[in-house]
Amino acid sequence: MSDCLDVHAAARAVLAERDIEAKLDGAARLWADWNAGRLAAADAAEPLPHDCAGRPERPALVPPKQLAKRTLRDREGHAALIHALAHIEFNAINLALDAVCRYPRLPAGFYRDWLQVAAEEAYHFGLLRAHLRSLGHDYGDFPAHDGLMQMARDTAADPLARMALVPRLLEARGLDATPAIQQKLRGYGDAAGAAILDIILRDEVTHVAAGDRWFRHFCALRGLEAEVAYRDLLERYRAPKPRRPVNTAARLQAGFSAAELDVLLGQG
Predict the structure, then answer these.
(1) According to DSSP H, which parts of the chain are helical?
(2) Domain assignment of residue 231, yes or no
(3) 215 lies in a domain?
(4) Where on the phi/psi map is residue 245: left (φ > 0), alpha (ψ -120 to 50), or beta?
(5) From CA 77, how far away is CA 55, in angstroms rounded?
(6) pLDDT at 2
(7) Which tens digit of pLDDT belongs to each residue from 86-95?
(8) Using an 8 Å Cβ cutoff, are 143 and 62 in contact?
């Protein structure tokens, strides 16, 4: 590592940060430091507890079934939808940083990819938070659920399962949902919100692709056929399969094959 700082320790400090602005600045700084050669992976990393991701006191976290259905019938519903999207992006910062500091002794490209993802998720969150503020609200004003982080806890022991069931499953479902959300926002007159989602969708394709790339890497190391292993993991973790309509173009761009999508959708 010579004079470089330990990327695992640096990412862990930002992951633990509870202050929103400090976390956003930290994610951007980590990415800049990596590109400047100031960070490098160590041979070992301090074991990471399951629940070490810092978050502000608000929003209140409740089970998904306790959340009211978010509609665009009024201003409150509009703000609640933008808040829900911002919450996903905030959790995604933590998920990317968690991958950097939880799994040592991996190729440098793994850490590069997830530091870039963390920085881009921080940028996305900032866009959505600014938009939410323009609607008279801020992050934390509405309750939210913890589904993304729960899957991270469930897959903490195995980077193969993490890559399969967080970026390649849950984030890929976001690729499917985004076009319909954009259509609703435009119908409500929120062209600015839909434009933010254009940026997010573009970047999320590359994030899912990173998950796909590293999932296939881990499968190859273990002698597994990736698409079979993926279906096995869906069953083992009782994870949801894709819902129609599926954003086929985005999923193909992110690394799914047409044959795999046919099987996942029950057509093969």
Answers:
(1) 7-16, 20-35, 75-102, 108-134, 147-154, 159-165, 172-188, 191-222, 226-236, 248-254, 258-264
(2) yes
(3) yes
(4) beta
(5) 24
(6) 57
(7) 999 999 999 9
(8) yes
What pLDDT, on the 0 to 100 scale, is given for residue 267? 60
Find the domain containing 167 and state its range: 72-264
Number of separate domains in the chain: 1
Whether residue 189 lies inside any domain: the answer is yes
For residue 142, what is the domain's CATH number?
A: 1.20.1260
Tokens matching residue 49: 């507890």
Q: Give the residue carrying structure tokens 């929103």.
A: 20
Q: Tell whether 91 is covered by a domain.
A: yes
Entry field: residues in the chain? 268
Dig out the tokens for 226 from the structure. 């990736």
Residue 144's DSSP bridge partners are 61
**What is the share, in percent, of the chain residues with pLDDT greater than 90?**
81
User: Does pLDDT of 79 surpass 80?
Assistant: yes
pLDDT tens across 34-58, in order? 999 999 998 776 777 777 899 999 9
